[in-house]
Write a structure and sequence with these properties.
single chain, OB fold (Dihydrolipoamide Acetyltransferase, E2P), 2 domains, 5-stranded mixed barrel, 1 helix
């Protein structure tokens, strides 16, 4: 048993295989968590000291778009109130994981500060999310000018303060985002 920190080298891929709590980077096995390293049958496991929720593929999440750098948005996500992700958990939303229709820019579908309902599609060194599903998309958006919440009018979002209209890849839960939050927390 050995104490390890996130990103710490635990061996190389010629000797060991990554397992839960570890990942491979440039030929070296590294820890995802602060915890204890256990090696069994040439596999490296890291058991976290702090009980945290480890995201799994297909898990539904709420996320806030943090930043956009075409063609990817960076989103901070939370599973639910009881199993919140670690304070540093960010996911990537690639433009190809937004819609089946062609988008010139990711900003046609999401913008910074938007709250989205998404699915985790890949868990590895980086977590990737998607809003392609019928029930997934933006559930709360803010005006780009005055920063007030936007009101849904059919497929367009409108600001009642400055009369701006905007578009997003909307979830059918846009008007009922509190229901999504309640469902995630049960």
């Amino acid at each position: 048993m050995k104490l390890v920190l996130p990103g710490e080298d635990m061996g190389n891929e010629e000797e060991l295989f990554p397992a839960s709590g570890s990942y491979l980077e440039n030929g070296y096995l590294k820890s995802k968590y602060v915890g204890r390293c256990e090696i069994s049958a040439k596999s490296v496991h890291v058991i976290p000291f702090k009980r945290i929720f480890i995201p799994k593929k297909s898990t539904k999440v709420l996320a806030q778009i943090y930043d956009i750098s075409e063609p990817v948005a960076l989103a901070k996500f939370q599973i639910n109130a009881r199993h919140s992700a670690d304070s540093g958990d960010f996911a990537f939303l690639h433009i190809t994981n937004i819609s089946n229709r062609f988008l010139k820019t990711i900003r046609e579908a999401v913008k910074p500060r938007d709250i989205i309902y998404a699915s985790i599609i890949n868990v590895g060194k980086n977590i990737e999310i998607s809003i392609k599903g019928r029930d997934e998309g933006v559930i709360l958006a803010y005006c780009g000018d005055c920063k007030r919440p936007l009101i849904r009018e059919d497929y367009i979002l409108k600001c009642n303060v400055c009369d701006t209209t905007e578009t997003r890849k909307l979830s059918p839960f846009y008007d009922n985002y509190r229901g999504v939050i309640k469902w995630l927390n049960h």
